[in-house]
Design a protein that fits this description.
The complex is a heterotrimer. Chain A is an all-alpha fold. Chain A is built from 11 helices and no strands. Chain A has one domain. Chain B has 2 domains: 7-216, Serine Threonine Protein Phosphatase 5, Tetratricopeptide repeat; 219-297, no CATH class. By secondary structure, chain C is an alpha/beta fold. Among the domains of chain C are: 3-83 and 159-229 and 299-308, P-loop containing nucleotide triphosphate hydrolases (Rossmann fold, 3-Layer(aba) Sandwich); 233-294, Alpha-Beta Plaits (2-Layer Sandwich), CATH 3.30.70.2860. Helices cover 32% and strands 29% of the residues of chain C. Chain C has 10 helices and 14 strands. In chain C, strands 6-7-8-3-9-10 form a 6-stranded mixed sheet, with helices on both faces. Chain C has a 4-stranded antiparallel sheet with strand order 2-1-4-5, with helices on one face. The longest helix of chain C has 16 residues, at 173-188. Classes of the chains: A mainly alpha, B mainly alpha, C alpha/beta. At the A-C interface, helix 1 and helix 4 of A face helix 2 of C.
Chain lengths: 266, 307, 321
């Protein structure tokens, strides 16, 4: 006997697999192979930098696309196609439905990101081996692993945001809102920078307030640092970023559940 | 319902407190350094999908804010002594990206001429030439280029730049004069002061307060250099009289209150600003006294070799 | 008799405009009771509030006021859904699942044990006649098949009470017949069935009792046979070879008269007039094709919205109308 959350999560995962969401992996692997062949001419460890950055960036890019475009459909599609009527008339709470949907897409992204990371590490290993043969191990950029974990956390936050919007808005608006939130969240450091340079006090505090309330994706962006500095992100940063992501996601899920709980399915 | 709202507030509060911890762990400008990794302005231009103008503004603001704020002290005043905080290696890529995104961003080229010249004048020249290529009728770029050459003691090139700029529309009369001055002089502080005073007045008249401030600072630097010379003169006199070096500038006593008998490079009276036991430069910081060699130095490392 | 469903003054207002100032009353103080083991027909024209009522009962929308209890538990109590089955109106399910997968999914939501569930799915697929389609994705299902898989999922938890919203709509005559048979077999197994429809013949065949909804209000309710006794039976006589003169004469006797392909169609109020109509037709050398009674009760409710006398069977004992 399974918990309803798990039942819905597994079904959501199955849906994304049957809807061929994971096909993006093929594209990713092709991209990786093509890039690896092209950068083979680069000197020293440049190829590790280029491939690591390209791989992680592609992982983030595909991930955000999946998180937003599948995420906004998670709830909306069920309402639009009226499948939600059948499900909510069963003995489960509405928040369980929301949680199930969230974990389902999280599982899809987990599979997606894991495969990508493995492929990326394989590509980096092959490149390192070709150049350094037996000493290759020391030249593989293992920094992509923690960077990948942080990207996954970032994607979970994007899913939670898309889920929130899809629980009360139309798909077009949800997409616009989610993309906007993603962009603002990625640039939120600049809110603080602008806040510091503004003299008008209310505006200054408004910006500072926004900086803290809006999601802050810069906590998760270590792509460039890992690619260049070629070392691991500090454990403290990973820990705090993880806690931050979990807290923020919980907050969004509670908010989504409240919104969803209040809805009438006309 | 109330419980859910409480939970939302609590979770948001907790996430903010974690954010504060995360922010405390990193230097305030860590993000700007990410930009260093962006390979070229062309890549950014491609990636900006037609929003290159907006992105250029963004990079320009980043450059100005970063460099401007590194120089601000606790009282939000520009403190020229803080230049060592600035990562000059980031300046060229930032300005290069800005001007590749929008090649007509004149202020960015001029910014390069003012700031980059101290770090690597060749890079400043590279950017200014790029600017002239895209904006051949902008006389101000020639003015900046001439000044950079002059600072590099390449008087012939400086003169050529000023004369070339003088031919451009709306160029002021003194561009020609500067071209002549460059040919007839070997540089020196007096020339510098003349150059900067002219530029300062010009910038003020065209309400270009940012540029004007930069020139004002340059003039103050010249004043400071004059004061350093005068202080060293006083120290030499003290050594002659007492046979030893003073342990601090304050031991010069009343001598510090007497203005120099010779006029400064800008024709000004050289008068020292004594505060307690220290002598304060026009730039705001105290002069550095090195007892070992019995000399006074500028309060910061970056002294232009031309003066 | 145990009460299976008790609705008490259920009211639902929908806001029409953005600011919520304009409201439309979709359901107006509806009260009724359904007893265990009966097949209850919930009648009304499109837009009368049938679906609104069922959605409130299923917890899909929230009532503005009023309460309802299913099997003794308030509708807000999630656990009440353990013993309920629900077939939504023109259902649509996850089209990427096969019939078996979909039923397994529904069964898992009820936390039904695996071994038990497997057997039940087989049984239900047999009941609704979809054994052959067990491993076909729902995207390839016809409307009738979807309706049948919908019934199967409504029964996955072996519910005591089943709610069906327009179970027969959109089906061809064979499909309707099959759904009808399923409902009858469920009744035979002691289930309580509550179904909405706007098709009168379904009700006449299946229902023990009915409630009729008109513009959100209860327009009438009770046992079909009781309600029918209260009204006079209308007769319909079809005659042929009737000339103009005869038609004029018949017009005085009949409620309505019209020419059809099979002859002249004469409607009269009661049996009392039948004799005179037949005489009149014979006088003019016409022939009688057919004579049969027509029950107009339900149609009356639909058209006029007359509130028939209530014996308190449908309404809540305290509502006192």
């Amino acid at each position: 006997m399974m918990n309803p959350v798990l039942v819905i999560a597994l079904n959501t995962f199955r849906e994304s697999v049957r809807d061929k969401v994971l096909y993006n992996l093929l594209l990713f692997v092709l991209l990786l192979i093509a890039a690896s062949l092209l950068v083979a001419e680069l000197s020293l460890n440049q190829e590790q930098i280029v491939i690591a950055r390209m791989g992680l960036s592609a992982m983030l890019f595909f991930g955000v696309l999946i998180a937003i475009f599948i995420g906004i459909g998670l709830v909306y599609k069920e309402i639009d196609k009226r499948t939600v009527y059948t499900i909510l008339a069963k003995p489960l709470c509405r928040y369980e439905f929301i949680l199930g949907k969230f974990f389902g897409l999280s599982l899809t992204l987990l599979v997606n990101c894991s495969v990508m990371l493995v492929a990326l590490l394989a590509a980096l290993s092959v490149l390192a081996y070709r150049r350094y043969a037996n000493q290759a191990f020391g030249y593989i950029n293992f920094g992509v692993l923690p960077a990948g974990l942080l990207i996954y956390l970032e994607l979970l936050m994007v899913v939670a945001i898309a889920l929130l919007f899809s629980s009360f808005s139309t798909p077009v608006l949800s997409t616009v809102f989610s993309v906007l939130f993603y962009i603002i969240g990625s640039l939120s450091q600049d809110l603080l920078v602008f806040a510091r340079s503004i003299r008008l006090v209310p505006a200054k505090y408004l910006l500072i307030g926004l900086y803290y309330v809006l999601p802050n994706f810069s906590n998760f962006n270590y792509i460039n640092i890992v690619a260049h500095d070629f070392h691991f992100v500090s454990g403290r940063k990973i820990l705090f970023a993880t806690v931050y992501a979990l807290l923020y996601i919980c907050m969004l899920l509670v908010l989504t559940s409240v919104v969803f709980q209040k809805r009438n399915f006309k | 319902m109330l419980k859910a709202l409480l939970a939302i507030v609590l979770l948001l509060g907790l996430s903010i407190s974690v954010q504060l911890k995360l922010d405390a762990g990193k230097p305030p400008e860590s993000r700007i350094e990410d930009l260093l990794y962006i390979p070229s302005g062309k890549t950014v231009k491609v990636l900006s999908f037609g929003f290159d103008g907006v992105v250029a503004d963004f990079y320009w603001l980043r450059s100005v804010q970063y460099y401007g704020r590194q120089l601000l002290d606790e009282n939000n005043e520009i403190n020229w002594n803080r230049t060592e905080n600035v990562r000059y290696d980031l300046l060229y890529p930032l300005l290069d990206i800005t001007t590749t995104l929008d090649p007509h961003y004149i202020i960015a080229y001029r910014f390069a001429a003012l700031f980059l010249v101290d770090y690597d004048p060749q890079l400043a020249i590279k950017l200014l030439k790029k600017g002239i290529e895209y904006n051949p009728n902008e006389w101000r770029l020639y003015q900046n280029l001439g000044t950079v050459y002059w600072q590099m003691k390449d008087y012939k090139a400086a003169s050529e730049a000023f004369f070339a700029g003088a031919e451009k529309p709306k160029a002021p009369y003194w561009m020609k004069i500067m071209g002549g001055v460059m040919l007839s002089t070997s540089g020196g502080r007096a020339t510098a002061c003349r150059l900067y005073t002219t530029f300062y007045e010009e910038a003020r008249q065209s309400n270009d307060s940012f540029i004007a401030e930069q020139y004002e600072l340059q003039i103050k630097r010249i004043h400071a250099l004059d004061e350093v010379d005068y202080l060293n003169e006083l120290l030499d006199n003290y050594k002659k009289v007492s046979g030893r070096c003073p342990s601090g500038l304050y031991q010069l006593g009343d001598w510090l209150k007497v203005p120099s008998s010779t006029a400064g490079s800008c024709g000004q009276t050289v008068r020292l600003n004594v505060k307690g036991r220290e002598v304060i430069s026009p730039l705001g910081a105290a002069y550095v006294f090195d007892e070992e060699v019995c000399k006074v130095k500028m309060p910061f490392e970056m002294v232009d070799p031309n003066y | 008799m145990q009460t299976a469903l008790k609705i008490d003054k259920l009211t639902k207002d929908y806001t029409i405009d953005f600011f919520g100032t304009k409201k439309k009353r979709a359901l107006d103080e509806l009260s009724l009771e359904v007893y265990e083991g009966e097949v209850f027909g919930f009648l009304g024209a499109n837009g009368a509030g049938k679906t609104t009522t069922i959605k409130i009962l299923m917890g899909l929308i929230y009532p503005t006021s009023g309460t309802a209890e299913i099997l003794g538990r308030p509708i807000s109590d999630i656990s009440s859904r353990r013993d309920i089955g629900f077939l939504p109106e023109s259902p649509y399910f996850y089209d990427y699942l096969t019939a078996t997968e979909f039923l397994t999914y529904c069964g898992n939501l009820f936390r039904i044990e695996k071994s038990l569930l497997r057997g039940r799915i087989k049984e239900l697929l047999r009941l609704v006649g979809l054994e052959q389609a067990a491993d076909i994705q729902l995207r390839k299902f016809s409307k009738g098949m979807l309706q049948r898989i919908g019934i199967a999922q409504a029964l996955i938890n072996d519910p005591k009470m089943v709610f069906m919203d327009e179970p027969m709509s959109g089906l061809d005559p064979i499909g309707r017949r099959e759904v009808r048979d399923i409902i009858i077999s469920l009744r035979d197994r002691g289930k309580t069935i509550f179904f909405s429809t706007h098709i009168l013949s379904d009700v006449e065949v299946l229902c023990d009792r009915v409630a009729i909804l008109k513009q959100g209000k209860l327009a009438g309710c009770g046992r079909l046979s009781d309600l029918q006794q209260q009204s006079d039976t209308t007769m319909e006589v079809v005659a042929h070879n009737v000339d103009k003169e005869a038609v004029e004469k018949l017009g005085e006797l009949a409620v309505s008269i019209r020419q059809t392909a099979s002859g002249v169609n004469i409607r009269i109020r009661s049996e009392a007039e039948l004799e005179r109509v037949i005489q009149a037709v014979h006088q003019h050398k016409g022939g009688i094709v057919s004579v049969y009674p027509v029950k107009t009760l339900l149609e009356d409710f639909f058209i006029k919205g007359e509130k028939q006398s209530e014996d308190g069977v449908c309404g809540h004992p305290n509502s006192g109308s």
